[in-house]
From TrEMBL:
GO terms for molecular function: fatty acyl-CoA hydrolase activity. The keyword Glycosyltransferase does not apply. Residues 55-125 form the Thioesterase domain. This is Medium/long-chain acyl-CoA thioesterase YigI. InterPro entries: HotDog_dom_sf (IPR029069), PAAI_dom (IPR003736), Thioestr_dom (IPR006683). Belongs to the YigI thioesterase family. It catalyses: a medium-chain fatty acyl-CoA + H2O = a medium-chain fatty acid + CoA + H(+); a long-chain fatty acyl-CoA + H2O = a long-chain fatty acid + CoA + H(+); a fatty acyl-CoA + H2O = a fatty acid + CoA + H(+). It comes from Candidatus Accumulibacter appositus. The keyword Hydrolase applies.
Amino acid sequence: MAAMHKAQDPDFSARVRASFDRQQAMLLIGARMAVIEPGYTEIHLPHKAEITQQHGYIHGGVVGMIADSAAGYAASTLTTAETSVLTVEYKLNLLAPAEGDLLIAEGSVVRYGRTLIVTRAEVFAVLHGRKSMCALMQQTIISVHGKKEHQR
């Protein structure tokens, strides 16, 4: 679990969920936002053949997608309602094949700044009820003021 953070927006959970629901990429791969707390989110991704690579593991690019979104939304839980966030960069280590019935990306805020927010995500594969880390990511987020998200 993440360190304790204070949300600036009392409606952060509804705002983050609405934003996640606008992400066509998450819909495409079948991911869902399972947990939203100040400074922490979880994205769950069930295994399906359409997102695997040639060995049958969930593709590393898809692992990166859910890590990026989980950590980015963790940052978004702490911003004001008028602030958007965008990823500036991330470093992803694929530690083991993403082999499981379910992937869980746990995003958390390491340091919250006015302009830059440093986050991390741990991605776990759940196979036969056993949870093991398959990826670790560190990310830099920029706070964007006055830029509204695209409305579908």
